[in-house]
Design a protein that fits this description.
Elements: H1 2-15, H2 32-37, E1 75-77, H3 85-95, H4 100-115, E2 125-128, H5 133-139, H6 143-155, E3 158-159, E4 164-166, H7 178-185, E5 189-191, E6 202-208, H8 213-224, E7 230-236
Parallel strand pairs: 1-7, 2-3, 2-6, 6-7
Antiparallel strand pairs: 4-5
Helix pairs in contact: 4-6
């Protein structure tokens, strides 16, 4: 029951008060000072990182003309640099299983999209980047799905986790070079249920973009399966 979950969280907060991931201050997972200190990044091309402001016929973060033939990503939206407090937040969510950070991340993304005046196409679908079933079982959850679920509720967008599956267990991307990452990801994803994305716009969501290899491979598979445009969204990069 939901009220039992709330009571459990409140009891744990009393026993183990949350600490700011930036400065360690007790009381919240990110204090106002550390939140203000997060480095914001203007909209960029997914491939070459050139600044891409919104224009009349294109959203912010639209993949630039010279890079479009090299990527299946239509537009990339990611508000923060992956450093300092943001890095600690991501690690706390993924490795210390602090699920409340998923709520914070969804709030951050919703605020960023509103500030950028991003309006997703009608009937767009949110798809979280999947984990391999063994990795998700080990962690207990998929952090991208947690973020997507909350963000979908805020934006009124359907979330589907039955479309894209990770069928190959890969080594952690952080340990690899860019070339190794691309090779590591080949054949990683497969489409389990293509029907919902036929001719539709997809919003692919993950926690962090590093080289972009994971998002690119997932976008490529979705595009091949019939998706119209694939937007890539992360909290940090």
């Amino acid at each position: 029951m939901q009220w039992l979950s709330v009571l459990k969280v409140q009891a744990l907060d009393l026993l183990f008060p949350p600490q700011c991931c930036g400065c360690g201050k007790t009381g919240m997972i990110l204090c106002a000072s550390c939140a203000d200190a997060l480095m914001r990044i203007p909209p960029q091309c997914f491939v070459c990182h050139a600044w891409v402001p919104p224009v009349k016929d294109a959203p912010p973060g639209r993949t630039c003309p010279r890079c479009r033939s090299h990527s299946a990503v239509y537009a990339f939206l990611s508000p923060f640099a992956y450093q300092h407090a943001m890095r600690e937040l991501v690690h706390s969510l993924k490795y210390r299983r602090n699920r409340q950070i998923a709520v914070l991340f969804a709030d951050m993304l919703a605020s960023h999209l509103a500030a950028m005046q991003v309006v997703f196409p009608k009937d767009a679908i949110l798809i979280p980047v999947p984990l391999h079933k063994a990795r998700e079982r080990e962690r207990g959850f998929n952090q991208s799905f947690l973020i997507a679920k909350i963000l979908g509720e805020k934006l009124g967008i359907e979330v589907r986790r039955d479309v894209l599956k990770k069928i190959k267990k890969t080594a952690p991307q952080m340990e690899l070079t860019r070339e190794q990452r691309l090779k590591n990801l080949h054949g990683t994803f497969a489409i389990h249920n293509p029907l919902p994305i036929q001719g539709e716009n997809v919003i692919l969501i993950d926690d962090v973009k590093t080289t972009g290899a994971t998002l690119e491979e997932a976008a490529r598979i979705l595009k091949k399966a019939g998706a119209k445009h694939i937007w890539a969204t992360t909290v940090a990069h």
